[in-house]
Amino acid sequence: MSDTTINTEELGEKIVRVIKTIYDPEIPVDIYELGLIYDVFVNEDYDTKVLMTLTTPNCPVAETLPLEVEEKIKSIKGVNDCEVEITFDPPWSQDLMSEEAKLELGML
Asked: For residue 12, which of 21, 43, 73, 102 sits 20 to 30 Å off, Cα-Cα?
């Protein structure tokens, strides 16, 4: 593997770091720790796909949050393209939150 080759696993970690800079406007915790990101896929062409959910189907940021995720991921050096898919299966619940998020919100 040459120095210019990007490891898809490394790229996946960069994507997660970028996702952790995106916050739900109503909850002071990033969307990764909130458990809104179900999966991040990176293929050999460095196309990425993010499977995510929202806290509720009528979430006030339902239009803007997926776009923000897509734009921020597309700005990562090495990412070719990004598609964000929203799903409500399974629906989001507080059980999906990380310990860190629960602690931040005083739930522990």
From this structure: 102
Interval 57-85: pLDDT, tens: 888 888 899 999 999 999 999 999 999 99
C-alpha 83 chain-centroid distance: 11
Coil, strand or helix at 97? coil
What is the distance, to the nearest Å, from the Cα of residue 95 to the centroid of all Cα atoms in its chain? Answer: 17
| Residue-range domains of the chain with CATH | 8-93 (3.30.300.130)
Q: Residue 16: which residues within 8 A CB-CB, separation 6 or more? A: 32, 37, 40
Distance CA 9, CA 104 (A): 28
- Averaged pLDDT, 1-22: 82
pLDDT of residue 1: 40
d(CA 66, CA 70) in angstroms, rounded, equals 6
